[in-house]
Structure formats: structure tokens, C-alpha cells
């Protein structure tokens, strides 16, 4: 399969699956770093109050829990490149892949729009620093993750 210009082949399902895996592993590593006490970027992601006080529910669910979910996402992404599925199981994997990609895209794009438009007063509620970093780093990061997971799923569905 080639791109619109016909000169460059599109990455295979294997490549997109590995890109999605790398995205998940990098984000999981960041959550583990935060969970063990690291603080670089945490206030701009979760907010100053959570970053400062680190309630146990936040560390357990929001940091360790998300890290585990991302590790599962990494394994799933690699699995999409290796599994030889047919029938109902294949459809389930494709649905889960699309669901993951759409959730990540929606999180990144919708929050970007809300922050840019000031809808609901969320930008003033989270503060200028968190808004700034959400707009230039965190939301685009989620969009990137959504794109690579969706492309891996699209390629799997076509394969």
C-alpha cells in the first residue's frame, strides 16, 4: 500500500502497533516516575493541588493505575502486530483498538477545544500554567497516542 503520492509505502500494522507500544511505554514510564515521587511535569498535568498533596487515591489510581493500564495498552498494541485472529475475536480486538484510539483522540482534541475557547471556565479553574502545558504538550500527546493506536487498528482491520 502506498501513500497518496504513490512513492512512499505506508507503515504496516506491525510498525503502527510498535509506534503505539512505544507511546504507551513512554507515558507509563512518566506515570511510574510520578508515582515514586518525581514531580517534573506533574503539576502541569494533574494540577498543583494533586501534585503537592499526592493523596493516596491519586497515587494508587491516577499514577500506578494509569501506568498499569498503559503497560496493558503496550502489550495490546504489540499483540495487534502478532496475533493471527479470525472471526469474533478479531472483531473484539478491532473494536477495542478503535475504542482506545477514539478515547485518546477525544480526550486530546476536546480538551484542547475547551481550553482554547474558554468553554465552561475550565482554563481559569486550572490556572494559566496548567492551561499552557495542556495546550502545547499534554493534549497533543494524547492526540498522538490516539492517532497511532487508530492507525494500528486501521491497518489491522485492513490486513
From TrEMBL:
InterPro entries for the chain: DUF3995 (IPR025058)
Pfam families referenced in this protein's UniProt entry, alphabetically: DUF3995
Highest taxon of the lineage: Bacteria
Keyword S-adenosyl-L-methionine recorded: no
Residue intervals passing through the bilayer: 15-36, 56-80, 92-115, 135-154
Keyword Cytoplasm: no
Entry keyword set: Membrane, Transmembrane, Transmembrane helix
Protein name as annotated: DUF3995 domain-containing protein
Species this protein is from: Kibdelosporangium lantanae
Amino acid at each position: 500500500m502506498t501513500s497518496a503520492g504513490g512513492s512512499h509505502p505506508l507503515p504496516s500494522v506491525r510498525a503502527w502497533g510498535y509506534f503505539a507500544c512505544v507511546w504507551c511505554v513512554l507515558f507509563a514510564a512518566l506515570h511510574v516516575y510520578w508515582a515514586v515521587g518525581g514531580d517534573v511535569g506533574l503539576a502541569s498535568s494533574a494540577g498543583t493541588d494533586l501534585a503537592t498533596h499526592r493523596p493516596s487515591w491519586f497515587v494508587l489510581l491516577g499514577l500506578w493505575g494509569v501506568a498499569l493500564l498503559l503497560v496493558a495498552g503496550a502489550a495490546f498494541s504489540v499483540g495487534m502486530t502478532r496475533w493471527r485472529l479470525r472471526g469474533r475475536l478479531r472483531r473484539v480486538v478491532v473494536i477495542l483498538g478503535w475504542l482506545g484510539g477514539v478515547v485518546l483522540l477525544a480526550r486530546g482534541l476536546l480538551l484542547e477545544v475547551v481550553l482554547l475557547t474558554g468553554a465552561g471556565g475550565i482554563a481559569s479553574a486550572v490556572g494559566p500554567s496548567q492551561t499552557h502545558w495542556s495546550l502545547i504538550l499534554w493534549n497533543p500527546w494524547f492526540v498522538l497516542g490516539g492517532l497511532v493506536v487508530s492507525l494500528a487498528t486501521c491497518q489491522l482491520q485492513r490486513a
